[in-house]
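Q: Could you fold this chain for me?
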Amino acid sequence: MNLEKYKKLDKLMYALGISFFAIPLFIFLLGWYKLYISIPLCFLFVFIVFIFFKKLNYKTEEEYKQIFNWKKWGIVLALLIGFNLLSGIGGYFFQNWDHNARNAVLHDLIDYDFPVKYNYEDQTSIDIVGEEGYFSYYFSYWLPSSLVGKAFGFDAANLFLFIYQLIGLIVFYYFICRLFSKIKINYLLIFMAFSGLDIVGQYLMNPSKLDFTSHIDTWSMYFCTSSTITQLFWVFNQGISTWIIVSMLLNEKGFTNVGIYMLFIFLFAPFPAVGLFMVLLVLLVLGFYNFNGECSKTNILDNFKELFSKQNLLVLIIVLFIALFFLINPSGQPKGIIFSKYGFTFDILKKYIAFWLLEFGIIALLIMNKKNFKYIIGMLLILSIIPFFYIGHGLDFVNRVSLPVLMILALFTIERLNQFNLKKVSCYLIIVYLILSSMTGIFEINRTLQNTFNTGKYDIVKNRHDNWKSYGKLEGNEARFFASNFSTKYDRDNFIFKYILK
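A: Sure. Below is the predicted structure, expressed as structure tokens.
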């Protein structure tokens, strides 16, 4: 295969990556915005993508040969299908509790016309929403599947969602291999093993929960980050979106196209968008990191000039209109600094130190070297700050904002083991760390297998956590407690509803 054919394959993978986000974006704009807003925005986005593809950076023929090793890709594809099944997507294997909320999203996108509106007139005490609700959530991940569901039903939508997510995993892994200019199966294994030392934290705080089926990411109570397997099994819509966007973004050699990635992550995963924004601030100062060679010197002024490229400025128009959609949902969730919630106590300080060390501090110190230390310090600064803020009753803010940053640490870990040195103790310590960190994912996988086959037979119906069904019918439904996360008051006199949204 010659270089031109490799370039076509490379361009195809870029097209798949862009389409993964662009198709839901088009559905969202046309389904939720007035046509005099949505149609110009769609044409504007097509123009931005046209500029994007004119500025692709290609690899050498030798690098492409290392990336397109079809035997290894066959093994990787089998592993990705396995992980996809175990995640519970589609309901073919056991689904964790969070799928109640996500299945309800899919149901409503199928069962209601776009834009989705709810009638709460005959239902009691939904004060925040009122009598008429408007579905307002980052639901883009489910939009293509919902169109399939409208035509063929909920089961068909789940099958399409399974395929859609598998395509996302393939795209993500392709761009990881492209980042390192080579495909290796252990890249996937290292990435899926990556986590904090949750098993150590759980043992120190509450060893009774170490039964190999427990969800141990939340051991610290006040703070939490998620393993890659946990992201896949619980918050796949945010996790996989972040994986694709970060892996594609890191393949860039400059800031000319960063706007399109921020648009995608903002639409699909607003909390991780905050984390990626902070990562970009670090990259603006230090420049893009070269995972496949020496890092070149950067000029901050040049980076800022690239940031103000034509396509980045045009993307801001689309981002503005998406921001208006998210702004209609006041959420009503508590927010602030953690000390205003719990007070400043020795217990919080103790658990923060343990959290810092076990979740990212130890691995950061192990993988740090002369080439990457500035970048890792930048990531540590971000990860050190975000735990002090909260939005909502749970640990969602730190848990989600940290996703892009943790992914970059995982990539640094892969790079470090790519240069395994038999004489360096740190390399062996990294392997020990990964074995211990992988226990978080092993617990998740074991719980999935136990619950999928605990009756001695396979039963797809019991695999699905689908008790909520809808955010439109809340009587006797646990979804009532979370209604204000997904639905907001439909106010016909509001400027946004009157002139922008349908």
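A (continued): The beta strands are 117-119, 132-135, 335-337, 389-391, 487-489.
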